[in-house]
Design brief:
Mean pLDDT: 96
Low-confidence stretches: none
Helix content: over 70%
Number of strands: 0
Number of domains: 1
Number of helices: 6
Length: 162
């Protein structure tokens, strides 16, 4: 039973983290908008790099990118909350019922991992060469969060001893 509570708690913790990220992105829109704007504009990458043709400077596209990031985070947070609540409600249920209750959590964890991997590491880091920036580089944080979500996913998905 303690293992089930731990699975629900870690899921809830990551869902809470993402809810705070969404809250901060909405209540201080300009701060992280500036981050997205600089990454897309590639204005702090290595001087004269050959990838500058990829830069996006159109304000509407920057808002679109940023809005999609916020929606992605909100969707993952909602799935994690639903998964945590479902696992909590099924904490005393038979193993098959608890396994079914993990579905939204697993979906939220995978959705979150995909965001760190695809949006931040692949698109931001490699396509827009964010890794070249000493100022607007979120690659380390994205990598850390990918690992955090991955460890939780492995634990949540692990077979129980019951």
């Amino acid at each position: 039973m303690n293992e089930r509570i731990a699975k629900a708690s870690l899921t809830a913790g990551l869902g809470f983290y993402l809810a705070l990220v969404v809250f901060n992105n909405l209540t201080d829109y300009a701060s992280n908008h500036a981050f997205v704007q600089h990454v897309l504009a590639m204005d702090t990458t290595f001087p004269g790099n050959a990838g500058m043709w990829r830069a996006i400077r159109a304000p509407w596209m920057v808002h679109l990118f940023y809005g999609s990031i916020i929606l992605w985070e909100a969707a993952a947070s909602a799935l994690l909350a639903a998964g945590a609540l479902g696992m909590w409600a099924a904490r005393d249920a038979p193993p098959a019922a608890f396994a079914r209750a993990k579905g939204p959590a697993i979906a939220g964890l995978v959705l979150n991992m995909l965001q760190w991997l695809v949006a931040f590491l692949a698109v931001g880091g490699e396509w827009f060469l964010m890794w070249q920036s000493g100022t607007w580089n979120g690659s380390v944080v994205a990598g850390r969060m990918f690992v955090v979500a991955g460890v939780i996913l492995l634990f949540v998905n692990a077979r129980e001893d019951e």
